[in-house]
């Protein structure tokens, strides 16, 4: 059975060494806080303006401002900066935090499309950093898809076994 990381690499097409190349350089020190705020703002402007209702609905339980803050604080923390996200919200636990949402291949592809466009449009991130970040984002998106599929398998297995048990007397 493949691990979630193996599935993420297979589905994303990103080798783990490339996915975690963000750890070779402290991108927070290199880029600064404002670059992450700009990226997240640009990204969520695209997400909340998406023409597809099914995609927008994934984010409907959060205000755009909260979504922007959660994302840039996570990115800052993951890419070498202070633990802003954990200080405010606790451990990132990506699969757990995304559990309520339908993290499908289609949703991951749409998310990545918006992130690529956001990265392409921000001017305060150099090309090498953009490449490292996009590899990380692509791998992580499909890691979340693998986690979502595992969640769905576990739910269906539990229901299947429960349906085959004799009724309690």
TrEMBL record:
One of its GO terms (molecular function) is heme binding. The gene is LOC101255613. This is Hemoglobin. Its cofactor is heme. Gene3D superfamilies: Globins. The keyword Ribonucleoprotein does not apply. It comes from Solanum lycopersicum. Belongs to the truncated hemoglobin family. Group I subfamily. One of its GO terms (biological process) is oxygen transport. Transmembrane segments: none annotated. InterPro entries: GlbO/GLB3-like, Globin-like_sf, Globin/Proto, Globin_bac-like_CS, Hemoglobin_trunc. Keywords: Heme, Iron, Metal-binding, Oxygen transport, Transport.
């Amino acid at each position: 059975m493949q691990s979630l990381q193996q599935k993420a690499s297979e589905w994303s097409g990103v080798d783990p060494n490339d996915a975690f190349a963000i750890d070779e350089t402290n991108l927070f020190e290199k880029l600064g806080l404002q670059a992450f705020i700009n990226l997240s703002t640009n990204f969520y402007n695209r997400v909340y303006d998406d023409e597809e209702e099914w995609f927008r609905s994934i984010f409907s339980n959060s205000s755009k401002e909260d979504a922007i803050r959660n994302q840039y604080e996570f990115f800052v923390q993951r890419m070498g900066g202070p633990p802003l996200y954990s200080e405010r919200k606790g451990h990132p636990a990506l699969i757990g935090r995304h559990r309520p949402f339908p993290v499908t291949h289609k949703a991951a592809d749409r998310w990545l499309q918006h992130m690529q466009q956001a990265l392409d449009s921000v001017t305060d991130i150099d090309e090498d950093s953009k490449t490292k970040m996009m590899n990380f984002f692509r791998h992580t998106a499909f890691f979340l898809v693998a986690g979502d599929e595992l969640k769905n398998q576990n739910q269906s297995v539990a229901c299947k076994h429960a349906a085959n048990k004799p009724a309690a007397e």
